[in-house]
Specification:
Blueprint lengths: L2 E7 L1 H5 L1 H12 L6 E12 L6 E10 L22 E5 L3 H12 L3 E5 L5 H14 L33 H10 L19 H14 L3 E3 L4 E7 L2 E7 L4 E3 L3 E3 L6 H9 L5 E2 L3 E9 H9 L16 E4 L2 E9 L3 E4 L9 E4 L8 E9 L15 H17 L5 E5 H5 L16 E3 L8 H17 L9 E6 L6 E2 L15 E3 L1 H4 L5 H18 L2
Parallel strand pairs: 4-5, 4-10, 5-6, 10-22, 18-19
Antiparallel strand pairs: 1-3, 2-3, 7-8, 8-9, 11-21, 12-17, 12-20, 13-14, 14-17, 15-16, 18-20
Helix pairs in contact: 3-6, 3-13
Length: 519
């Protein structure tokens, strides 16, 4: 009978199938030749001691024991071209996985995306990086695949209670992702590989009768007697359906403004805001792995750190080993940062958002905006940063130690942020209480990660799109909006997800709830 084992091995053994078989043969006291196959179920790194170990969960099949390679396949989809239509606004993970689930349930999704397809988006990303031109409909946040497509493709989620994480991972594998994402403790796909997977998902939706409309921005939601009737696009076209999944992402401010204007109930939601810090990957490796050189068998080291500073949580967010910082503005007159990594995480720099949890009381200066107070707070910082850095897509930047000492940096070295930087005292970007927490927090970070607090680290501001500043309330059982029948707020933009996996799960759940109402 196959044996399941938990073990700790060196990185060299974990990376070499023959060495691993030899090691396991000694553990179970058989010849290596008797081991037919070893399946790795889970893999994680234990870097708590100087001698770094790899934690493995494996199943060992000996000769004669039944073993068959399992191929992960897509569900059986049927043609839905003539089925009842459901509008899905947004082609991010929430919208795309909602559309797939609708097809699986026999319903026809009409996916409406304001931005371009993944290939078309690349021209607009080049424009913002090189020419400082922001396309309000096609950028790092808007377009096929949503913000996650060009933001590393991290698949780690703590929201296990929200739904079936494994199902989402297996669907991604079936669409072309590496099976490693089923095994790794902190899986990611990589910005270079995710676009092809997103494109294949879209093609599958179309193949089975769904529609995907690009360059189509929703300018109105048709409501009669508190029930959805459809939407209106920027061209004045109407698309009708009494079922609407609203999965527009955390940066669709025009949608929040539309809902507020139509008096469709929304509420301000706390989020987190701060800077994006860049170190050399070599330094982060030396801190995390306690060595001068990590070797060929260890991946570029990530880090995760949390501190309580002046009663606020300050923590790392969306850490990108071997990655770069990207410009993520969605309108002219603002600057926003985010980070991403290619699949190999082979860039020489590492970056992470370092953010502080905000509270609703922080938005009081913007109280006149009601439910949009948090969004206006967010906008004010992004616009101030734009002015301070020279009114282009350059961002305010400062050396880390200089920042803690309220000292303008004499120079800023070239960083991975392509549009460039402007030396600014970062305290000018943020309200005083946030600047003070950041200064104290970086000193605390330096105590926990020796070497982290260095003037070779460069801070870029702001990291402001961590999550939606608005929540669109819905019934916790039916997922329907509390006020508008047929409206299903979904994913990150509605305040119910935080990342690719949780957004995809939420999209599927909304689709399932709609199918339930149509039985």
């Amino acid at each position: 009978m196959p044996r399941e084992l938990l073990l700790q091995v060196t990185p060299e053994i974990a990376a070499n199938e023959l060495l691993l078989k030899d090691y396991l043969s000694k553990q179970i006291k058989v010849s290596p030749k008797e081991i037919q196959h070893v399946s790795i179920l889970k893999r994680s790194i234990d870097a708590r001691q100087k001698a770094i170990k790899i934690n493995l969960k494996v199943i060992i099949y000996l000769q004669g024991e039944p073993f068959q390679e399992t191929k992960i396949e897509l569900p059986i989809y049927k043609d839905v071209s003539s089925a009842q239509e459901v509008i899905v606004v947004g082609a991010g993970p929430a919208g795309l996985f909602a559309a797939l689930q609708l097809i699986e349930l026999g319903l026809k999704p009409i996916v409406i995306e304001r931005g371009k397809d993944v290939r078309g988006r690349r021209r607009d990303l080049k424009a913002i990086n090189v020419d400082h031109i922001v396309n309000e409909d096609s950028n790092y946040c808007f377009g096929e695949g949503g913000a996650g497509t060009y933001s590393d493709g991290k698949l780690y989620t703590r929201s296990k209670k929200r739904g079936d994480v494994t199902r989402i991972l297996e669907l991604l594998v079936a669409f072309g992702a590496s099976e490693d994402i089923l095994v790794e403790a902190h899986p990611h796909i990589g910005t270079n590989k995710l676009p092809k997977i997103i494109e294949d998902i879209r093609n599958k939706i179309i193949e089975f009768g769904g529609q995907v409309l690009f360059d189509t921005r929703v300018t109105d939601i048709l409501v009669k007697n508190n029930e959805v009737e459809g939407i209106v696009t920027q061209n004045g076209d109407k698309i009708l359906s009494n079922k609407l999944i609203l999965a527009t992402g955390h940066s669709a401010r025009d949608i929040f403004e539309l809902l507020d204007k139509k008096k469709i109930f929304i509420e301000a939601k706390p989020f987190a805001l701060g800077v994006r810090a860049e170190h050399s990957q070599e330094l982060i490796d030396s801190i995390q792995y306690s060595c001068d050189y990590r070797g060929e068998h260890l991946p570029p080291a990530p880090y995760s750190i949390v501190k309580q500073v002046n009663g606020r949580g300050m923590y790392s967010f969306c850490m990108c080993p071997g990655g770069v910082i990207a410009p993520c503005a969605t309108s002219p007159g603002e600057v926003v940062t985010n980070g991403w990594s290619p699949s190999k995480r082979d860039q020489v720099t590492a970056n992470s958002g370092i953010v502080i949890e905000l509270k609703l009381e922080d938005f009081k200066p913007f109280a006149k905006f009601g439910a949009l107070a948090g969004m206006e707070f967010q906008k004010s910082i992004e616009q101030k940063a734009w002015h301070l850095a020279g009114e282009t897509q350059k961002v305010p930047a400062q050396r880390m130690v200089d920042f803690t000492q309220n000292k303008v940096s004499a120079d800023i070295p070239k960083t991975s942020y392509v549009p460039g930087t402007t030396s600014v005292e970062m305290g000018q970007v943020f309200p005083g209480f946030l600047s003070q927490i950041l200064r104290e927090g970086f000193k605390e970070f330096g105590k926990s990660m020796r070497g982290y607090l260095t003037n070779e680290a460069i801070l870029h501001a702001p990291e402001s799109r961590t999550s939606s500043p608005v929540r669109i309330p819905r019934d916790p059982i039916t997922y329907e909006h509390l006020q508008i029948k047929g409206l299903y707020p979904c994913g990150e933009g509605a305040g119910y997800a935080g990342g690719i996996i949780s957004a995809a799960i939420d999209g599927e759940k909304c689709a399932l709830m709609i199918a339930e109402t149509l039985k």
